Amino acid sequence: MFNKKKAVLKSFLITCVIGSLLLTSACGSDSSSSEEEKDTIKIGVLASLTGALEAYGKQTVRGFELGLDYATDGTGEVVGKKIKFIVEDTETKPDVAVKKATKLLEEDEVDFLVGSTSSSDTLAVLPLAKEYKRIMIVEPAAADSITGDNFNPYIFRTGRNSSQDAVAGAAAIAKEGVRIATLAQDNAYGRDGIAAFIEAAKERSAEIVAEVYADPNATDFTANIQSAISEKPDYLYIVWAGSNAPWKQLKDMKVQEKGIKISTAVQDIASLKTMDALIGMEGYSIYYHTLPDNEINDWLVEEHKKRFDGEIPDLFTAGGMTAAIAIVEALKKTEGDTDAQLLIETMEGMEFDSPKGKMKFREEDHQALQSLYSITLENQEGVDHPVPVLIRELDMNETEPPIRNQ
């Protein structure tokens, strides 16, 4: 009987020791996992990886990865902390953007949001940044209302806004006595862009003779173009984004042969390949790889060619890179602290370098002040698209937009 009790006691003690060891092991694992999480900064990137703006979204993601490499000297770390980024496809649908952003914030517990390609997607997500107290870097969505009527203090935009586009566009063509008609997509980007352009053009004493908006999903813009040019303007100023641009129809309708000059933003390379009809136009560029003259852009061009079979970086590649650089520079200043209030205090007024040169987050609305480029379009031998040639750089002071969040 005594031996039986002894055996039971021994078995009990062994079970306790094993249980203790397992508990210690489990706690150690949780502790290790917790430490690893603590030493990792997570960034959620929202982008249109499908849909009409797919090309823009993919450029942004590629540029963001290059930007992290550049800003961290290839280590993927800042102040001893690893950086992990998670990409989600918004499908260029605001409701999907909200769903994906919520997933990033709740399940992935990201420290930053970046995005999105579409202004409508971005506007839908902005309240979540405030609700979850996370900094959101807006790139490349351009609607003025993002840093205007819908602004909240957790929003910082590295992309240019519609008013900056407008100032550059007006600087290229608007002056006293010039008659201008406008054409744009009927969405947040188009309407904000035209409203800002009209404001800037009128400040230069130009006359707006027609204001026309088209269905963003349409493919035939004949009636819209006819409506815009019926008032016989000197210029037709166009705000457009996406692959269904009206350039071919403008050529087919012989708009320039009617004595009406076309002016617009030079968008991505795919758009440039459709702009043969616009050779000789005077407009502006947000970015083209030959326009900026600085070391970061040189690195971007060479590294992009090296990694992607000789391809040159595109419009939103530079934007994605800029967003990544801005985050890393802010984290360097906070020594890796991701507290939103500290980041806001740090980033307001912060200057940082980018592929477009020096940028600065304006304190009042967190819009990044930046250069744009007055250009003309030319054919160049050996290049399969019209090339933007620099007339002059419009620096951050010249392109500073109105403050619209007050």
UniProtKB/TrEMBL annotation:
- Please name the InterPro entries in this protein's record: BCAA_transport (IPR051010), Leu-bd (IPR028081), Peripla_BP_I (IPR028082)
Keyword Metal-binding assigned to the entry: answer is: no
Q: Which keywords, in A-to-Z order, does the entry hold? A: Signal
The protein's matches in PROSITE patterns, at most eight in alphabetical order, are given as:
PROKAR_LIPOPROTEIN (PS51257)
One of the Pfam families matching this protein, by short name: Peripla_BP_6
Signal sequence range: 1-28
Signal among keywords: yes
SUPFAM superfamilies under this entry? Periplasmic binding protein-like I
Q: Specify the Leucine-binding protein domain's residue ranges.
A: 40-378
- Highest taxon in the source lineage: Bacteria
Query: PANTHER family this protein is in?
Result: LEUCINE-SPECIFIC-BINDING PROTEIN, PERIPLASMIC BINDING PROTEIN OF ABC TRANSPORTER FOR NATURAL AMINO ACIDS
So what family is this one in?
A: Belongs to the leucine-binding protein family.
The protein here is known as ABC transporter permease
UniProt organism field:
Aeribacillus pallidus
